[in-house]
Amino acid sequence: GAVVSQHPSWVICKSGTSVKIECRSLDFQATTMFWYRQFPKQSLMLMATSNEGSKATYEQGVEKDKFLINHASLTLSTLTVTSAHPEDSSFYICSARAARTIVLPLHFGNGTRLTVT
Amino acid sequence: AQTVTQSQPEMSVQEAETVTLSCTYDTSESDYYLFWYKQPPSRQMILVIRQEAYKQQNATENRFSVNFQKAAKSFSLKISDSQLGDAAMYFCAYGDDKIIFGKGTRLHILP
User: Of B18, B31, B23, B29, whose CA–CA distance to B7 is shortest?
Assistant: First the structure.
């Protein structure tokens, strides 16, 4: 089946630094990738939709300057948390939709646990 | 905007018994998908079952089945012959262009 690889699986960074999270579709081309955030014992909140070759679409309340999303190729999208603060600590999950299909994303990465100290 | 509501934060069921998880949603669209995802402690999102809104027949995947009531905007998940490995967080989700998740139901399986 389709595989989505997310890296790193966990990261600890100091407050004020930036962190980049990668999401790769390993065996299919993904025109669209979705980034979610999940707080402990809570649901997945959609942050943004990333389309290959164009600007990401952010959900209401998500700071686009803080959470930079780049989708430069059909197999890679990156989320950069800029000037991270402790309140950015969370679990981040990406999901990818295969190209040339109307079927919604069924393929999730394993997530990245971010801890900002 | 679309919303998904799961009114049962936690549920417990005896092993080998049947349990039903509830989900309601709201949308003005006529064409969409509904999903149930399972999230074990590893936090990997696992697709349990999917339903296309245009299909009247309820989806079934082995021990998992849904009761899809489009007019009532209800989409419940029935797990038959519950197993210890079914213990997890279950999320109901709505999708058209993107997927929106409910708050989840934590399912405990009692041995």
Answer: B23
